[in-house]
Amino acid sequence: MPETVERGQGKLIRNLNTYFESQDLPFRMSSEGMCHGLSVLRCKYVLEGRENDYYKMLDQISNETLQGGDKSLNELNEFVMQVLKSHAPEVFSRQKQRDAFSMLEVPGEGILKFNMIASTDTWKKTMESLHLQKDEAMILSTPTHTMSVSVTADNKYRLADPNDHAGFQDFESSDALLDHITSKYVWKGDYGFSVEIVRNKESMSKTREPPLPTMQEIYKDINLTAATERMDGKFTQFYFVFGLGGYDDTETFNLLLNKVIDLEGDARAEALSAMDVGLVFGAAQCDSVNILTAAIEKLPNRINSNIELMVDKSIDGGAHRVFSLLAERPETQENFKKLFSNEKASEYIHKAIAGSDPGIVKKVLAMYDSMPVDELAKAILKKNTQSGRDAIGSAIEVNGKYGANNEGPVSLLLNKVLESNQKLSAEQLLRYTLQAIKTNQPNLVTLLADTIEKNLPEKDKKAIFESIQLSEKTAKQTDLSILKTLQEHGTTHTKAVQGVMLEKENKPKGFRLAIGIMIEKFTDWSNKYKLGKEENMQQVMSNFKSFKERNQEQRQPAPKADVTPEPEYAGPAGP
């Protein structure tokens, strides 16, 4: 392998982030979340028998060496989109990172998935018992990092660690593989791994030899109160099993509960307390609805004693299924409803928005259907003490951070306020619109422009749209549909901006994301240009105020402003 080849995810992330910045995507890739996407993507290529193609694509992006004709370049563009899908599936659909296998249409079926914290010796015995096959691929994750494992033609274990500059390392045995991982990623206490094995679909009709161990065999000697920790945090057994990695299995919950019941005295009490923590911070926050359904049936009193924490964690994690479960199950419904007092309306609305799940926002608002409409509007417009934004502004900002096709919550909140006597001022609507422009959200810009048209007097409408003047630099970083929407509603673009619009019209078509943004193909963009951003949306507000002051009686031309938005949000750090 040439020494100049760099396959560590660091350079890949830098190059792709530069590309995404030029397309003004509302997030950035980080190493914490990227490792999972790359590992799943490699599994796809391994199961397709194209592992060499995976590294070929990786090398071209990381080392900026585009090669081949149209077919090769099209494959590279598709690879970039697959990286984006696996890292941030929410920009393509409502799915989350745990759905990466289905999003990428991996040609395999999951045959085993489990999480466990155990000693290194126990893990060596467990890994050996799995007997990973050549027609299988494994996702192997610590609490904070994800790798993939496969078996080579000469029966070696190949570990593909996204942090590895060479791309992969081969080991003679699973023991040697684990020795390498545990020495490279050191944790205090026992060691936590999430294991997921996917088998090629064409092999599913064949009997696997040897068969996989059962969950009873894997968890035979499990330490229910085991924990692992380092600077990233502490992870307990039940939290790890019930939450991380999207693990959600009723059979395993019942198996572990029976182990708890078999204990006596203080040991049982300690294990039950540990299970409570796992159900709240693991299952509730990570949307493990099957586990929580079983827990509600078997332990209703313990669930109800923790109902407030569970609801909060389900909201924080955007765990829509768990939130709905707690709201609808007869065992928890009454205590659930008690939480949503009118005094807490603003608090819960802001929590739901921060959790970024549109379904939860809708359900939280529905909890306040009987609240007087003016009181609800006041709760929506009440500013959060930390962010300084009202609920509508917070919802717009959350969309911009996570790239969700998420105008639904903003529309719901707007309508609730518009139905009340708490009228939105022209200045408020302008601020919302600037937020949507700044975070490059076409759907929201259209929604807000239509809201302005329907609800403001003519002079205020003109003041808003004539005050918005984008610089050429900002226009290049703004989706074409936003520029068109502003123009349709009265914004007069400069000749330079009109030139940018023409250039965007004639650009080769790329990929339309769920958030409404059309992004250029990676190969069309590569080596063409790189753009930065600066902040000065305040100038538009100044334009607007000056316009209103000078046009009380007779409208005059609005002052022009060279507007550039603030730097984009860097994206949340994922596990």
Summarize the structure in words.
By secondary structure, the protein is an alpha+beta fold. Among the domains are: 9-103, no CATH class; 340-423; 433-575, no CATH class. It has 29 helices and eleven strands. The chain has helices at 9-22, 31-47, 51-63, 70-87, 100-103, 120-130, 174-184, 215-218, 237-242, 250-262, 265-284, 289-298, 300-305, 307-316, 320-328, 333-339, 345-355, 358-366, 373-381, 391-402, 407-418, 426-438, 442-455, 458-467, 472-476, 480-488, 495-506, 522-525, 538-550; strands at 108-118, 136-141, 146-151, 157-160, 169-171, 188-189, 191-200, 227-230, 233-236, 511-512, 518-519. β2 (136-141) and β3 form a beta hairpin. α2 (31-47) crosses α4 (70-87), α3 crosses α4 (70-87) and α6 (120-130) packs across α7 (174-184). The chain is flat, with a radius of gyration of 27 Å. Residues 511-517, 525-536 and 555-575 have low confidence and may be disordered. This is Ankyrin repeat-containing protein. It comes from Legionella birminghamensis.
